[in-house]
Design brief:
3 strands, about 5% strand, single chain, 13 helices, three-stranded antiparallel beta sheet, mainly alpha
Length: about 350
């Protein structure tokens, strides 16, 4: 399971590690660029080519042209596959959501009518999101991420299906939860705020007022950053579960936290870079995460600390808190190496 702050506006607000914009992620998680589904498809294809044909087939310079980097190819392909599944489903639901709201968005729109339509749209979203095809694609991406973690460690290791399915089922439960919550926690607040602006002051009864609501609706229905964050956390959890399970099979005792050290590196991951912990402790934590029924309970057993909190704690304090295994923040690229 994983936890993200579903009340954080991933389209328009600053996204930081632990909520400290001054010492968090160096602006890495600020308002996201307008990434399209096509952009994501191209990135996924580039990584799939690199993985199937070797590093020479897709040099680092070419990866960077797709917005990727040398440190992005451990589980990024599966992250993109999962994000595409969720984003494409959201795009398919968009016409039905627009059909509920758009007829009411006129110069003389009534706020109460629009609010009622927004709640109706939320009910529709919850009823029709996370269909069987999306769940299957998401599950397959997580299965591949686990396998990639095992293979990266040792291609001869066989992972017991009981352990493999434990993390996959947990990630699927969490993926469903965050998909169902998207409209209620990301779209609705923005739409209600837009309606309030549109019907008050100088905008009341004007074309500019209802256009604000239309633009907000369009932006929320095509939002890609949310799906990228959900997929990144799930793929990272799955991949590192595979690494740790393989480590247990090989009798490994310790592992090292390894950040991708470049201009995009978060302050948190830079601080943790090189830290070592026990494989058994991390595996116990990951099993707890995988078996949680409520995705948001993860924040109690594996929280994302602020930099100030992290720097004030010893390595043992971090272990007791559950801060041992990536991801440590949204869009985290860090990984682990068995010693």
């Amino acid at each position: 399971m994983f936890w993200i702050d579903v009340d954080q506006d991933l389209l328009g607000e600053h996204q930081t590690c632990g909520g400290d914009p001054d010492v968090g992620c160096n602006g890495l998680h600020g308002p996201e660029p307008d990434i399209t589904l096509n952009d994501m498809s191209v990135q996924a294809t580039a990584l799939a080519v690199r993985r199937s044909q070797g590093a020479a087939a897709m040099p680092d310079s070419a990866l960077r042209s797709f917005g990727l980097g040398p440190g992005d190819d451990l589980f990024a392909e599966y992250e993109l596959e999962a994000a595409l599944a969720m984003a494409e489903e959201a795009m398919a639901l968009a016409p039905e959501i627009r059909a509920i709201l758009t007829p009411l968005l006129t110069e003389n729109m009534r706020a109460d009518d629009v609010y009622e339509a927004i709640y109706k749209a939320d009910r529709l979203w919850r009823a029709k999101s996370w269909q069987k095809g999306t769940a299957q694609r998401f599950s397959e991406a997580m299965t591949n991420a686990v396998a990639a973690g095992v293979y990266k460690t040792n291609s001869a290791v066989f992972l017991d299906p009981i352990f493999r399915n434990r993390i996959i089922d947990g990630m699927v439960r969490a993926g469903k939860y965050y998909t169902n919550e998207y409209f209620n926690r990301q779209a609705m607040p923005a739409l209600i705020s837009a309606v309030e602006r549109a019907v008050s002051g100088d905008m009341a009864g004007s074309r500019a007022g209802y256009k604000i609501v239309q633009e907000t609706l369009n932006a929320r229905l095509k939002s890609v950053p949310y799906w990228q964050v959900v997929a990144n956390v799930a793929a990272s959890r799955s991949y590192h579960y595979g690494v740790l399970r393989a480590g247990v099979s090989l009798g490994k005792r310790t592992y090292q936290y390894t950040a991708v050290m470049d201009e995009r590196t978060s302050t948190i991951c830079a601080a943790l870079h090189g830290t070592t912990w026990s494989v058994d402790s991390a595996m116990s934590l990951m099993d707890q995460i995988a078996q949680l029924e409520d995705p948001e309970d993860v924040k109690d057993i594996a929280p994302w600390p602020s930099v100030k909190e992290l720097l004030a704690m010893s390595d043992d304090d971090l272990r007791l808190l559950g801060v041992m295994v990536p991801p440590m923040h949204p869009r985290c690229r860090s990984t682990i190496i068995l010693l």
